[in-house]
Amino acid sequence: MAITEIRPGIHYVGVNDRTTTRFEGLWPLPIGVSYNSYLVVGEQVALIDTVEESFGSRLFENIREVIGDRKIDYLVVNHMEPDHSSSIAALRLRYPDLKIVGNAKTLQMIGGYYGIDAGTLEVKEGDTLDLGAGKLLTFHLIPMVHWPETMVTWYAAEGVIFSGDAFGTFGALDGGITDSEVEVDRYWDEMRRYYACIVGKYGAPVQKALQKVGGLEIRTICPTHGPVWQERIGEVVALYDRMSRYEGEPGAVIAYGSMYGNTEQMAERIARELAEQGIRQIRVYNLSYADPSVVLRDVFRYDTLIVGSPTYNGELFPPVEQLLRRIEARCIPQRRFAYFGSFTWAGAAVRRMKEFTERVKWEPVCPPVEMKQGYSTANGEPCRQLAEAVAAAMNGNV
Ligand code: FEO
Predict the structure, then answer these.
(1) Which of 5, 262, 339, 343 registers the highest number of CB atoms within 10 A of its CB?
(2) Is 169 helix (H, G, I), strand (E, B) or coil?
(3) Mean per-residue pLDDT for 247-273?
(4) What is the pLDDT, as a whole number, of residue 1?
(5) Which protein residues touch ligand 1 with a CB less than 6 Å away?
(6) Residue 48 C-alpha to ligand 1 middle, in angstroms?
(7) What band does 389 get if pLDDT is binned at 50, 70 and 90?
(8) Helix count (H) and strand count (E) of the chain?
(9) pTM: predicted TM-score of the whole model, two decimal places
(10) What's the gap in Å between 81 CA and the centre of ligand 1?
């Protein structure tokens, strides 16, 4: 098989991006990201998704390496977000007869983004496209994972699903393409971070999508980002299933803001007491410095969250407010939650966090701790009690 051939007649023609610093202009990419694109070569040739437009020439070169001067007959667009679609206009110029395959929502967006409304083929749920030589593609719509037009393409003969962003992860492909060729362990946290930041709001649509593809005998998952999954499919599907059910594993995130270290000392006291009570998975984040995507990742990962904030201009400390807004926007249905805060002359942070719990309908484990002015050993005792209550809940002792 050619080095790009991941299954007979299916070639990886994607690219790595190690220069973009923030995905969607928001989320850091410490180990890069890949934009995956696949060629299915039968009697006719189909390209499944494209890449971000600044990498278009590499995509075209990768395609030429596989099919030379042969034409591409179809471009299947599983997902219209521009990290996968912004090479479409240039691709059309190189392959003017290429038919663009997408559902009604996809084709509307292609018209809106790229002014292309001819040479398209609309598909609906369950429709098929026969490339000849036994290569039959079937389309399944999985709306809102995480855009309304998202769909997957199923190639039954090889048990391959081209899954769009589903089962994707941050992290470039450093040589290997399939999971048997890469060091898989470096991708799990990046998969969690990708899910929490990009897809996290859409747990219910992801669950629907998992049910829809659950009946398929999948032997290879070809996502739009990260490794092609073959040997570790069970783990990948289980991780996406758990995250989309918002199911945390045992562990506590303590996320706090602090201007002069007093609220920070409350967080330290709480963390120490949790450890004293036998909790081993504890992640403490100073929100002025921690990468928000890493904090969100761990809020998705763990079942317990403790948040602390000083009062700032009569409100929450801004990085704390931002975290709570991001959690709220992702509709996380529950976490074991506790909170603490501080003020100098008039308290507001604790009141704002109480309002947060009411909006998201989370029942706090125990009453909050509110501290006036500086931290002291005496002020540490209510923090210890808060941690004791949280640990008792985590240990199943209440
Ligand atoms: Fe990778 Fe939703 O685009």
Answers:
(1) 339
(2) coil
(3) 98
(4) 62
(5) 79, 81, 83-84, 146, 165, 224-225
(6) 14
(7) very high
(8) 12, 22
(9) 0.96
(10) 5
54: tokens are 């600044």
Instruction: Give the nearest ligand 1 atom to 198 CA.
Output: 2
What sign for the dihedral angle of Cα 63, 66, 69, 72?
negative
Q: Which atom of ligand 1 is nearest to the CA of 225?
A: 1
DSSP track, 117-152: -SSEEE--TT-EEE-STT-EEEEEE-TTSSSTT-EE
Amino acid at 315: E
Which pLDDT does position 3 carry in this prediction?
77
User: Which domains occur in the chain, in start order?
Assistant: 4-244 (3.60.15.10), 252-392 (3.40.50.360)
Residue in 324, 336, 335 with CA at minimum distance from that of residue 390: 336
Ligand 1 nearest atom to the CA of residue 150, by list position: 2
Atom of ligand 1 nearest to the CA of 81: 3
Query: What element of type H or E holds 265?
Result: helix 262-276
154 alpha carbon – ligand 1 mean position (Å): 19
Tokens of 97: 């007869």
Contact between 364 and 381 under an 8 Å Cβ cutoff? The reply is no
Mean pLDDT of 293-321: 98
Q: How many Å lie between the centroid of ligand 1 and the Cα of residue 185? A: 22
Give the span between the Cα atoms of 393 and 382, in whole angstroms: 17
163, 154 Cβ separation under 8 angstroms: no
- Give, as one character, the DSSP assignment of residue 21: S
Distance from the alpha carbon of residue 307 to the mean position of ligand 1, in angstroms: 30
